[in-house]
Amino acid sequence: MDRKQFMEKLERLLWNISDSEREEALQYYNDYFDDAGAENEARVIEELGSPEQVAQKIKVGFSDSASEYSEQGYEDTRFRTAQEVISREEAQREQQSSENGTGKRDAGRASETNTWKLIAIILICVLVAPVIIPVGAAILAAVAAVVFGIGGACIGVAAAGFSVLIVGVVLIGIGIAEIFAIPSVGLAMTGVGCLIFALGIVLSLLTIWCCVKILPWLIRGIVGLVSYPFRKAGTNK
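Given the sequence above, the corresponding structure tokens read:
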């Protein structure tokens, strides 16, 4: 069978479709033969099959809107679309599996890195402990000495001020009593008592100023000094 016989028989088999559909189908296969060339007519006929098969494909294609021409006649595009969807889903699953595997490997490497970091920190602590512990103890002792020293000084100043106040009050009382006996001695003692009482007031005010100004500053400084290493560690994280 040659091209002419193939096309004539195909035209006869397409008698029961509309003229426009028949002309469209015949034009398609004529173009197909032209593109292949006269020397390949036999191969094209072998690929297409019998005119009956081609006619059946054409009729099925025209009866279904989800079909289009292909090299083998009309093809149902719904099956091709479904296959494309399946292929995309398989590609997505493979990609997801690959990403999950990569994520697990990254998590494993991160966990291993954290373990080695912890081991390194422990080793460093063991090595520097003989140095850090004495130095830390010395620093704490110095801080404690400063705190207790300043606290003792404040307490001493407060005690001295209170004592001076008492002495001044006593001298004033004695001086007032001596005025009636020996006026000059009484006045002198009263004056000295007033001076001592004034000194006691100054010392008391100095104690209050130390408690209000110096002690809070000292406490903040000690707290900042002690908490500095911890803040530094938190910043490095």
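Residues 77-179 form the longest helix (103 residues). Try to locate this feature in the token string yourself.
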